[in-house]
Amino acid sequence: MYCRIISGAVLGVCADMVDVEVDIAPGLPMFNMVGSLRSEVRESRERVCVALKNAGLSIPAAHITVNLSPADLKKEGTAYDLPIAVGILQSMEYFKARAAENMLFLGELGLNGELKRVRGVLPIVREAAVRGVTECIVPAANAAEGAVIPGIRVRGAEHISQVLAYLQARCGDKGRADKILPVTVAEEVCLFDGQPEAGGSVDFAHIKGQERAKRAAEIAASGFHNLLMTGPPGAGKSMIAKCIPGILPPLTLEESLEVTTVASVAGLLSEGQGLIAGRPFQSPHHTVSQTALTGGGTVPRPGVISLAHRGVLFLDELTEFKRSALDSLRQPLEDKQIQVARAGGTVAFPADFMLVGAMNPCPCGYYPDTNKCRCSEPQIKRYLARVSGPILDRMDLCVEMKAVGIEYLQNGEEAEDSRLVRERVMAARNVQKERFAGTGYRFNADIQTGDLESFCALDREGRLCMEKLYKTLDLSARVYHRILKVARTIADLEGEEHIRAGHLLEAASYRPSFF
Amino acid sequence: MEEKWYAYWLCGLPGIGNRTIKCLLEHFGSPGAVYRASEQALRPLLKPAQLQALLESRRREAAGTGSAARSGVGKEECFQAAYERLQEQGIAFYTVEEACYPGRLKQIPDPPYGIFVKGGLPDEERLSVAVVGARECSEYGRYVALELGKYLGEQGIQVISGMARGIDSISQTAALSAGGASFGILGCGVDVCYPANNRELYEILQQKGGILSAYPPGTLPKAGHFPPRNRIVSGLADALVVIEARLKSGTLITVDMALEQGREVYAVPGRVTDRLSDGCNRLIAQGAGVFLSPEEFVRELAHGGGRAVQSDKTGKENEEQKGEDTDGGEMADREKLLPILQALDFQPRSAEDIYVALKGRYTLQDVTVGLMELCMQKLAVQTGVGYFCRGHSDC
């Protein structure tokens, strides 16, 4: 008997439907699987057979053929266990064929028949919904993830026998079927209202002093600008970086779907987790390899930069990173995505993140304090050259931090907390949303050089000011443009429509000024 | 002419320094005689390694004369041909016996036997001042070096230094820009530009002053060459000014040499909290002259170094003059910017430091904007990410 079960495969962060075809014919007992399968998919055979046996369901001694179609798409992962098992059961007529119509199955089977979690459920369910599939059966641990997608019913199962019972009941009594395997309802996740939830791990109120850095962080968050902090060890650069997710506006539903999809594909969603509510914060160690950073591998998986999509990528000790790893960031910083090419095709992972870097100003870290710093000028130049020019070029804001004085630690004064800062950031964001409505831009940092004239127009006073700055500070065109963008964000933060000289001057103070 | 070839050859012998050359000349009478001396005659006067080097060199010359002279090419070419090439390269060579050898240098206890010159020699009639200091100087040191170099250049006083990074090159460049003359003494051959980043200074020095060295062309810089070079720096000058030096620094070696040579040593005082001023302050405690301003220093120098009591006006004059320099910016702006300007120092301060120091009179934004306005007016300069210091007249 032939039957066809709907399943899905992940491609990058998208998905495609896969048909699991099962045919049982009389003949010598054989179990063949075809369809361009990686080794873990081939192992499904063993898992399915044993799982069914342990569930009390016997497999006939017949010629069983399983085909995963399209046959030229390389299949990977263990999610095909369940659809194969269901296909076999359907071919053996354990339940009526109608029951599994228009239903998607995903899940790994343990030898005892348990359903185990798999990767990439969210994008597959989303694709299924688009294709008109009405129901999904997925492992219980993944149910919350799938439930996020509107317009499709997702049921989380724990055991193959539960699935079978459900399918058997479905054609008869729908109510009983629902009791056996209820539909998972998506949790209410507060993404955007007055009280946004998950914030950064550190609150601004915990940081004493460092007003300049906090201000720069606020500007960076408002316009999604890249930020570089320099200072001696222990100055608090990591703390500021950890605060930033807490002052970024909450994820929109669309953004959250994107973020959750990437996490799902990477297998990083915890059991029972639905939509991710907080901004991602990724802080790879500086020994990270280029592949781990950008993504790749034999089966392309998202890298750290994709896990930081819509959030913060924090590179601490920027000078210690491998040159190749840093250089590989240039393209994603431009394109907001990363293309991973493989023999079978190219896969694009999203990578729209805010880059936050931290480094020492010199090898010992104490420049420009000549009493502590004994580094010579060539030493410092060589040290700074470790961070490639193109990366430094993309830092819109550079800010200095000094070690905190004892008076700050002991004065007990309350600093502003993240919530208040976030409100200002959100107000600035709204201004940008209005400004860029209908264009492809989201934030001031995205503005291309050609559009600067229209979005960052200067009045006469402003133009004179920029001219003077350009000459006296010996600016390059690139820095000039960055100052304009940052000034636009500063003006937005102050609720001003026109960019004033004061905004330009403050923006200029954040330009990267190394030797 | 012939003697000079031999003199040139003598200077180029590795391991044979000034004292040895002096000894050899006393014994044999002339460089030519040294060249022709027999091995037995030389043996008692030289250390084994030196003797080896000398004999080796003679052997090579003997082999080289003829074939190398004809081809004119080759690393170890005949020294005569090499000497001729000096003319082509614009390098002059003077021995201590010649008239044009710098007078002041002749008088020091241990003058180099021969010096190589690219460009000109210091004018005997005009005052010469050696300016030395730390390579990694602070903004304060940079400022003083600039002002001093500029003033000396304007006054027609020759600036002698080592062309090193930091104080040396800052003062020399300032003097040249102000129209004065300056001379760089190198610890390598005059055709080697060390340090490489000072290429521009190296070129201008050849036109508006000169480059001198006791080492033959092609010699690369080595750590051991610098102390001997330093004695030439102080030897060519009438007085030595130390702008910044740590407690243990190469600059202080130059001071020792200057004292041996009987030169006046002045040191620029600095804050006791600055490690870069430790050396200078210590020198003052040990009796060096206190450098308070370029004008006072030159006045004292011109009067033979006597310490006449100067009126207090000098200090104030400078202050006001500096105040006058700040033309630009309307009155209202200046009122607002003045406290920020006064909070600036020669040590770079972060914008946040200044904001805190002004104790809430300004918001952080105001301070940042104010600092940038001062930068535009050249009254302040941004030295690094977020650090500002007082501007100098030449920035």
Give a quick set of tags describing it.
heterodimer; A: about 525 residues; alpha/beta; 5-stranded parallel beta sheet; 4-stranded mixed beta sheet; elongated; B: about 400 residues; 9-stranded mixed beta sheet; 3-stranded antiparallel beta sheet; 19 helices
Integer average pLDDT of chain B: 84
Average of pLDDT of chain A: 88
Rg of chain B (CA only): 25 Å
**Structural class given helices, strands, pairing of chain A?**
alpha/beta
Q: Main sheet of chain B?
A: 9 strands, mixed
Number of helices of chain A: 22
Percent of residues of chain A in helical segments?
25-40%
Largest interface: A-B, 33 and 31 residues
Would you report the number of β strands of chain B?
A: 12
Q: Segments of chain A where pLDDT lies below 50 for 5+ residues?
A: 193-198
- First CA to last CA of chain B: what distance? 49 Å
Describe the sheet with the most strands of chain A: 5 strands, parallel
Shape of chain B: elongated
How are the strands of the biggest sheet of chain A laid out side by side? Answer: 11-14-17-10-18
Strand percentage of chain B lies at 5-15%
Oligomer: heterodimer
Strand order of the largest sheet of chain B: 1-2-6-5-4-3-7-8-9
